[in-house]
Amino acid sequence: MTLDERLDRLARGAGAAREIGLEEVAAEADVVVRRARERAGFPGATYVLALAGGTGVGKSSLLNALAGRTVSAVRAVRPTTDEPIAWVAEDRRDELRPLMEWLEVRHIAGHADASLGGVAILDLPDVDSVRTEHRSRVDALLPRIDAVAWVVDPEKYDDERLHAYLRSLASHAPRMRFVLNKADRLSGGQREELAADLRRRLSAAGIESPRVSVVSAARGDGIDAFRAQLASEADAKGLVIDKLATDARQASLALGHAVGVDIGATVLPLLSPEARASATRSAVEGALAVMDPPGVARQVQAAVLARARHTGGSLLGRVVALLLWMTGQQRRSADPTGYLRDWRRRGSLGRAVNPVHVALVEASGRLPAGSRAPILRSMGTDETEAAVTQALDRVARDTTADLRVPGSILWPVIGAVQLVVGAVFAFAVAWYVTLFVSGGAVAVATVELPALGPVPLPLVLLAGSIVVSAILGLILSAHAGWIGRRLGNRLAARVGAEVADAVERAGMAGLDRVEAARRTIGGMT
Ligand SMILES: Nc1nc2c(ncn2[C@@H]2O[C@H](COP(=O)(O)OP(=O)(O)OP(=O)(O)O)[C@@H](O)[C@H]2O)c(=O)[nH]1
Ligand SMILES: [Mg+2]
Predict the structure, then answer these.
(1) Is the distance from the beta carbon of residue 5 to the nearest atom of ligand 1 less than 6 Å?
(2) Are residues 228 and 336 part of one domain?
(3) Beta bridge partners of 455
(4) Distance (Å, rounded) from C-alpha 220 to C-alpha 203?
(5) Number of structural domains found in the chain
(6) The domain containing residue 109 runs over which residues?
(7) Is residue 143 one of the residues assigned to a domain?
(8) Is 500 inside a domain boundary?
(9) Is 58 near ligand 1, meaning CB less than 6 Å away?
(10) What is the largest CA-CA distance in the chain?
């Protein structure tokens, strides 16, 4: 993959991280992208090597020794070097000027050493003096530098600050060198010993097979060998590209870490499809408990019955209907529209919304602690309740529109039959009254019934009219119940579809954005 492609991917990864609330790590990645594009845009094949280290270790002296003249002042007062000084091949000075301006290096000295044409050497201020601005200056400059020679002396080779730097820069180890200066103060054995100890410590800091030079800037020992090593870096451009690619890679890893994915590996979802489906199911159940389709079905049944009684009711049924209407009972128990409209009174939406919240919180639990809060915020969990509320209002409205309590052509027929039955009943009652008044003087016809034998006709008419009326009442009631249940089922199906849709759209949309961002970041490689 070319550097450009790598940087484009990193920029996309940073955009994805920003969209899910990870502003800080996204901004850091953007800085890397911008810095790398700027660095790669400078012409020429020269890499920048900085001499870095604590005050007084001999960075300036080392540069002077390489130059064979005083390029950077060396004094007894500490710290000495306040501003970075560049030492570049004279014939590349003009070409390097924009790069030096970018590095904010104002002092440039030239040399005619052809073997060091491919490297611009910077003498930096110290990283450990009382002058804190030196440190911040170096901190700001180091990320823009292509390679570093860390200079230590027998006193400071073990400096903790240096090692802290090294640990953070371990990924750049291939572009780091180490110079143990002031070797003139050491015996041959001590040199070996210190150099070996330094190597050991560097390995411990994560720098495999470190390149260590032992020199004396004052006496010139090891300087030619060090110069030869610098000159042997054949591919300056390659070194720069490698450095920038490493920066990009590190920034990708940081993005990956922030969203809990390994770059290049398969990205496992934060919420399994099963857990997601189960959260949606629970949300629907919670919404159904509030919407109460069986309750609505009962209301519909009562309303249908009330209406049916007007046209198809028995005498008794009509009396009951009148009583219910007068006591207001009908308005309470046979008012499906009102019952639907007032769904909010039947409980909070917590039961519908909480399962979604719980699932999202559980999903975010798979993220590193530092990213949880901003990512959860970006998921917009608060929108779920509003979306479910809207969905239920819509369902209530649509269902109300369906609620025209249906009439049936059967009802007038049943009504007519009921009237006839009522008349038969009244006739039978009158007959009995007549019998009673006549004191048994009127002969009564009998009907031969199986198993019962002869039964008086008025009794047959009386009982028959009651039974037929009751059967007709039952048929009406069953019909009304069927209508109520059909509407209740339709309502339940609507609640199921609409709430599941609201949960997917509002509740899970944020999670989907997060998952998409994680896939983008995980695919950066
Ligand atoms: N004995 C000995 N002294 C050295 C050597 N190199 C440098 N010095 C002395 O160490 C002191 C510091 O040298 P500098 O080159 O100014 O050190 P520096 O790392 O540039 O220091 P700052 O600019 O303050 O960060 C000076 O007094 C040098 O003379 C060396 O190889 N041997
Ligand atoms: Mg100096």
Answers:
(1) no
(2) no
(3) 447
(4) 28
(5) 2
(6) 45-234
(7) yes
(8) yes
(9) yes
(10) 155
Q: Are residues 52 and 145 in the same domain?
A: yes
User: If 0-12 CB within 10 Å is exposed, 13-18 middle and 19+ buried, where does residue 417 land?
Assistant: middle
* pLDDT tens figures, 251-307: 999 999 999 999 988 999 999 999 999 999 999 999 999 999 999 999 988 888 888
426 & 315 share domain: yes
Question: Do 306 and 395 lie in a common domain?
Answer: yes
How many CB atoms are closer than 10 A to CB 61? 23
The verdict on the CB of residue 216 being under 6 Å from ligand 1 is yes
Protein residue with least CA distance to atom 24, ligand 1 = 79
Side by side, which strands form the sheet with 47-53?
107-111, 85-89, 119-123, 47-53, 147-152, 176-180, 211-214
From 234, 257, 290, the end of a domain falls on 234
Residue 45 in 3-state DSSP?
Answer: coil
d(CA 187, CA 176): 26
- The pTM score is 0.79
- Same domain, yes or no: 221 and 323: no
The sign of the torsion formed by the CA atoms of 39, 43, 49, 55 equals negative
pLDDT in tens, 329-382: 666 677 889 999 999 998 888 999 999 999 999 999 999 999 999 999 888 777
Matching residue, tokens 């997060």 = 514
Q: Which three-class secondary structure string do you get for 235-254?
A: CHHHHHHHHHHHHHHHHHHH
Q: Which ligand is nearest to the CA of 156?
A: 1
CA dihedral 403, 405, 409, 410 (to 10 degrees): 120
Last residue of a domain, which of 234, 260, 294? 234
222 lies in a domain?
yes
Residue environment code for 267-297, b if the CB has 16+ CB neighbours within 10 A, otherwise e = bebbbeeeebeebbebbbebbbebbbbebbb
Please name every residue paired with 392 in a beta bridge, in sequence order, or none if there are none.
none
Does residue 195 sit in the same domain as residue 297?
no
Give the sign of the dihedral formed by CA 438, CA 449, CA 474, CA 421.
negative
Q: What is the CATH number of the domain that holds 203?
A: 3.40.50.300
**With contact defined as beta carbons under 8 Å apart, do 134 and 127 qualify?**
yes
Angstrom distance (rounded) from CA 485 to CA 305: 13
Tell me whether residue 440 is in a domain.
yes
Neighbours of ion ligand 2 (CB under 5 A): 59-60, 80-81
Q: How far apart are CA 167 and CA 163, in angstroms?
A: 6
